[in-house]
């Protein structure tokens, strides 16, 4: 029974995407909603990205410095390993897991509230493609702004490590800075950005699906929001595995 | 004119609407009444295409809604205005922006003309003074009036109202009823109101349809409602103490006139 309902949900999600991914009725209205989406989903997430990245970056450097205690490894290894962790996994995957909570629940609860207060029905009655009008600008805004968040996360993560080196002195700041530049592979940055854009699409579209199809009252909107966060977390981790294998395997 | 032929709607094997036939004339207020759970709202949602009927036909001036493609339905809906039970104004937009929204989406007029049209409609419902307020800053009655302004801004040919008086005091209800009646006459549109408010029926119900357990039990005008000999309709109408007393008073007056 649950397999059938899961398949039905996948089908509903695909049909919803078909309605979403069509040209907007009015481009000027789309741009208005796109700008609102950039601010509400992207710009307002910068502070959480900066704070979390700073502390996680600092903890990564601290943990590696404490655990790599071998004379066989040069001291700049701390910088190299921290950089690879931050660039390849933390700034894209882990940051998106965190954003799925903030952005995903925001989208699901907004659309869910609109659904139960008949605002979506009102759009339909006016002859507006409500899925396209409400969801497309959100997906576009979040996917387009995702690279900005990832770059912020990379820089503040590495900066957190820099500060911990400055405070503790092991490794020294110079060694850390040398480490984060050593054997640098630029494609890792592009890989991380591409991955985060895919996750951005998953977060916004899955959350929109749960919010758009919510029914009932305030309790169901809360449930839709929770389900969207849980489903997004699973999908992000599963697609991370597939994407990593495809891109780097 | 909207015609409904043999309309049936089932949910999980339960028939909610049973072979309904009805004609809703232009320029008059058509009211669908019935108890909670009688199928009124389902019928309204079928009429506007928010719910797909199980079988039957819904004809908008001869055009069958049930066989239309989604693009055709969207075009038809630009001729439809709807007042929802909770008004359904967009939370993030001001009253004026809400009324301008259909124009922003579909009108080719410039911004100044669109604003002028929206202000005209707000003035029509006496809401111009609240144009720059958000829906959260106005009362329930004002929300309904703003929603009526939004519903008529594109000059619709069909107006649907779902429980327009729910949650409103009697005085505000009367204002909303009069507004719906005036708009129907002034713009010569087909208006369908779903309600269980007998005051509305008596005030504005030019054509009244009574639904009971998904069946069209009775049809007539507001002047016939009080004197109908349908038992189920009488149960519904005279459930209100006020209407029972009016009926008794009418009978006493009638007998006195006969006697004297």
From TrEMBL, chain B:
Q: Which residues form the ABC transporter domain?
A: 2-238
Output the Pfam families linked to this UniProt entry: ABC_tran
Q: Does the keyword Nucleotide-binding apply?
A: yes
| Record flagged with keyword Transport | yes
- Quote the PROSITE patterns the UniProt record gives: ABC_TRANSPORTER_1, ABC_TRANSPORTER_2
| Highest taxon, organism lineage | Bacteria
| InterPro entries attached to this UniProt entry | AAA+_ATPase, ABC_transporter-like_ATP-bd, ABC_transporter-like_CS, P-loop_NTPase
Keyword field: ATP-binding, Nucleotide-binding, Transport
Instruction: State the Gene Ontology terms under molecular function.
Output: ATP binding; ATP hydrolysis activity
Could you identify this protein by its name? ABC transporter ATP-binding protein
The species this protein belongs to is Proteiniphilum acetatigenes
């Amino acid at each position: 029974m649950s397999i059938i309902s899961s398949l039905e949900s996948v089908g509903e999600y695909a049909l919803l995407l078909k309605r979403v991914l069509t040209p907007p009725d009015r481009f000027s209205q789309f741009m208005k909603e796109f700008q609102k989406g950039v601010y509400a989903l992207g710009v307002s997430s910068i502070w959480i990205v900066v704070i979390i990245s700073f502390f996680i970056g600092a903890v990564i450097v601290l943990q590696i410095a404490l655990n790599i205690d071998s004379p066989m490894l040069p001291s700049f290894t701390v910088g190299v390993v921290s950089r690879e962790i931050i660039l390849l996994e933390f700034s894209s995957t882990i940051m998106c897991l965190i954003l799925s909570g903030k952005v995903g629940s925001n989208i699901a609860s907004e659309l869910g509230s609109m659904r139960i207060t008949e605002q979506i029905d009102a759009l339909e009655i006016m002859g507006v493609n409500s899925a396209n009008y409400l969801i497309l600008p959100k997906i576009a805004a979040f996917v387009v702004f995702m690279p900005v968040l990832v770059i912020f996360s990379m820089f503040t993560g590495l900066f957190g490590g820099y500060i911990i080196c400055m405070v503790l002195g092991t490794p020294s700041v110079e060694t850390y800075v040398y480490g984060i530049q050593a054997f640098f592979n630029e494609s890792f940055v592009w890989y991380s950005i591409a991955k985060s854009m895919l996750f951005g699409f998953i977060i916004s579209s899955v959350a929109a699906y749960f919010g758009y199809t919510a029914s009932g009252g305030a309790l169901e909107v809360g449930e839709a929001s929770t389900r969207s966060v849980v489903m997004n977390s699973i999908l992000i981790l599963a697609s991370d595995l597939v994407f990593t294998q495809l891109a780097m395997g | 004119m909207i015609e409904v032929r043999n309309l049936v709607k089932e949910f999980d094997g339960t028939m909610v609407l049973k072979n309904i036939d009805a004609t809703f004339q232009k320029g008059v207020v058509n009211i669908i009444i019935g108890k909670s759970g009688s199928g009124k709202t389902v019928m309204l949602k079928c009429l506007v295409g928010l719910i797909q009927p199980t079988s039957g036909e819904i004809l908008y001036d001869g055009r069958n809604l049930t066989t239309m493609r989604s693009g055709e339905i969207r075009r038809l809906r630009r001729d439809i205005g709807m007042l929802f039970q909770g008004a359904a104004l967009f939370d993030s937009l001001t009253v004026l922006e809400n009324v301008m929204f259909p124009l922003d989406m579909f009108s080719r007029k410039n911004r100044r003309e669109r604003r002028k049209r929206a202000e005209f409609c707000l003035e029509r419902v006496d809401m111009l003074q609240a144009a720059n307020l958000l829906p959260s800053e106005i009362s329930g009655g004002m929300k309904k009036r703003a929603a009526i302004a939004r519903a008529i801004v594109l000059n619709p040919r069909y107006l649907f109202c779902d429980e327009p008086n729910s949650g409103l005091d009697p005085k505000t209800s009367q204002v909303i009823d009069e507004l719906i009646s005036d708009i129907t006459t002034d713009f010569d549109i087909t208006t369908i109101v779903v309600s269980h408010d007998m005051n509305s029926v008596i005030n504005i119900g030019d054509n009244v349809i009574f639904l009971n357990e998904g069946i069209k039990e009775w049809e007539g005008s507001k002047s016939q409602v009080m004197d109908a000999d349908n038992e189920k309709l009488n149960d519904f109408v005279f459930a209100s103490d006020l209407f029972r007393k009016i009926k008794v008073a009418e009978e006493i007056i009638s007998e006195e006139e006969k006697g004297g």
